[in-house]
Design a protein that fits this description.
single chain, alpha+beta, Arc Repressor Mutant, subunit A, four-stranded antiparallel sheet, 8 helices, about 50% helix, signal transduction inhibitor
Length: about 220
Amino acid sequence: DTLHEQGRDWQPFTWTLEALMVEMQDPNSGVKMQTQKIMITSIPHAMMGSDIFQWIMQRLQISDEEALNLGSQIIKYGYIYPLQDPKNLTLRPDSSLYRFQTPYFWPTQQWAAEDTDYAIYLAKKNIKRKGVLEEYEKEHYNLLNKKINHKWDFVIMQAKEQYRTGKERKKEDRYALDCQEKAYWLVHRTPPGMQDTLEYGLDRVTDPFHCLFWLYS
């Protein structure tokens, strides 16, 4: 289902969350961003989990538990993505590094996660890793091959082109974009065993979200 098909009740929640995202990215009063090193790669505009956690807690005047819960929900909805452990869609209040997802991929944009796009992503990953995909990804890859077989040549062509273009990017840009893409598909094609956050919407609202509604209503 697209986000649009999941009901209008979901939209006020995401609009409110996105108002907070705009504040968080304010260069003067938002979360501190700077170039951070991951192994030997310098990643610009990175944030530490502890800075995100402290900012949320102070801005909304909520407890550390509520701030941690809200921070994790922000990541699970795809507004912020982890740079070091893409599969862990939770906020770690330590030196773990994160980046803001580009607004183009924010939920209210209703950018549909199409099968063709996912197939291209998997095909590109398959090329990059020389056939080493996770089991659930292999299943999706094979199913998509059958489902959109009529355009599979296009999928492979696009995957090869994106892979080639990616290799021409700077190492830091390549690393950050790779994490961004992984996080996007973890949210929109949730692996078995992970909670599909996008299915819940307002049913998952807890005290921190009431603070958000109060602030931006």
